[in-house]
Sequence to fold (343 residues):
Amino acid sequence: MKTVLNPVHARHAASHEFFRGRLVPAHEIPQRADHILAAVQAAGLGPVLEPVDHGLAPIERVHAPRYLRFLEGAHAEWRALGGEGDAFPAVWPVRTLRSDVEPRNFAARMGLYSMDSGTPLTAGSFEAAVAGAQCALTGLDLLHAGERAAYVLTRPPGHHAGADFFGGYCFVNHAAVAAQAARDAGAQRVAILDVDYHHGNGTQAIFYGRGDVFYASLHGDPMTELPFYLGHADETGEGAGEGANLNLPLPAGTDAPRWFAALDRALDRLRAWGPDLLVVSLGVDTYEHDPISHFKLAESDFPEIGRRVAALGRPTLWVQEGGYATEAIGRNVVGVLRGFEQA
Ligand code: 6XA
Ligand code: ZN
Fold:
């Protein structure tokens, strides 16, 4: 399997994040990708490629241009106002406040375009996230050229990013950009399977009203886990998208038998739906030793994810999302991808 590596991922390098009320060393760090790359190479998974630049147009098919413009200049604005280090939002337009007017004040715009204070915006966040989308688009090109699968090795992750907001460590929704590009290239039905520990609220929201992109996710119950305000089982899509959204929230402590039973439910739905192409949001923060998550998958469980996804028999784009047990992340990711290849 070919890997498309984001060559500028390390330009998004936060030192600290807000976590339980204090600034702690960031979890989402460049070493995550370094460990995965080392494991990809050690396993001889296949060639590692650079992305081809597809420009901003395919990203603007998913994200609001005014959001992207804000993101591009946000860190410079923060610094110009005297902000030190990474930028964080502090105020949000919650219920009864207006989000249809873009204020001039910088802090107000930070809040308008974000969902949490847990996502440091650094000088290179925009560049790294846009390059991640280019990697996803390049991976899609590989599928169009006849590859059975491709792996997109990027960070920061993407699935929490909505059409016009960042959050949950995410700025640009690479999986959504790839799914939309697949539709624009002629695929009739595209499925996104999200196996990250967290619900991909951004991805769900982007396609919620559409019947051409199915979003299926198994994740920590939002009653107790980020993104908290989306990801419940009763969210099944709306309008033309009714029936094209599947959420399988699972309790803290979920072990492999229960997790794989949920995966099978998701795969059964996708099989019945019949996608032309599959995008997998591949988070490995379901790992038993992940520092911020609460599922119990062992390292030896990850290849089985790949095997079961392979049984769907669709061209598959694997897009990297979360996973914070930095020392083990490479083995877990490569385990999934080898399981897929060997199936
Ligand atoms: C702490 C939690 C961020 C979760 C990011 C993630 N702010 N999403 O892994 O999939
Ligand atoms: Zn996650």
